[in-house]
Design goal:
alpha+beta; Alpha-Beta Plaits; 4-stranded antiparallel sheet; 7 helices; globular; binds adenosine-3',5'-cyclic-monophosphate
């Protein structure tokens, strides 16, 4: 069974739609096997987005991701990395298919409501970054 890392970003937490987004995960058949709210600081957000350090949008990305609390969760399911990206919609909400989380809840490329790991390999790295080796609770029922 695959796992992926999901983040509900500060814009969506501020809009009070954590539950609506969790419902979409559950409707898709994903299990939430770890979850916590964190207010990222520059160090934690910078470490998470280190791969984007030289991109022009990096400064704004860190500023936004540290602007308020986020919900971080691990989702488990078959083919969950790809399927989670499908239900999130494209990175730019203006191009996202209708019915996706970003089309329905996000307003811009920066404030795009959710993050999801882009590969199985990165999912493992991102899950360990936030939850360590023992912070995920397998659900067998
Ligand atoms: P996320 O999946 O969290 O990964 C990096 C984030 O940078 C991305 O979602 C966007 O919210 C944000 N971002 C801002 N500008 C861009 C851009 N031009 N290309 C990709 N991501 C961008």
């Amino acid at each position: 069974m695959e796992r992926t890392l999901s983040i509900i970003k500060p814009d969506a937490v501020a809009k009070n739609i954590i539950g609506q987004i969790y419902s979409r995960f559950e409707e898709a058949g994903f299990k939430i096997v770890a979850s916590k709210m964190i207010h990222l600081d520059n160090y934690l957000a910078g470490g998470f987005y280190a791969v984007h350090k030289n991109r022009p949008f990096y400064g704004e990305l860190i500023e936004f991701m540290t602007s308020g609390p986020v919900m971080v969760q691990v989702l488990e399911g078959e083919n969950v990395v790809v399927r989670h990206r499908e239900i999130m919609g494209t990175t730019n909400p203006k191009e996202a298919d209708s019915g996706t989380i970003r089309a329905d809840f996000a307003k811009s490329l920066d404030e795009n409501a959710v993050h999801g790991s882009d590969s199985l390999e990165n999912a493992a790295i991102e899950i360990e970054y936030f939850f360590g080796k023992d912070g995920v609770f397998p659900r067998t029922r």
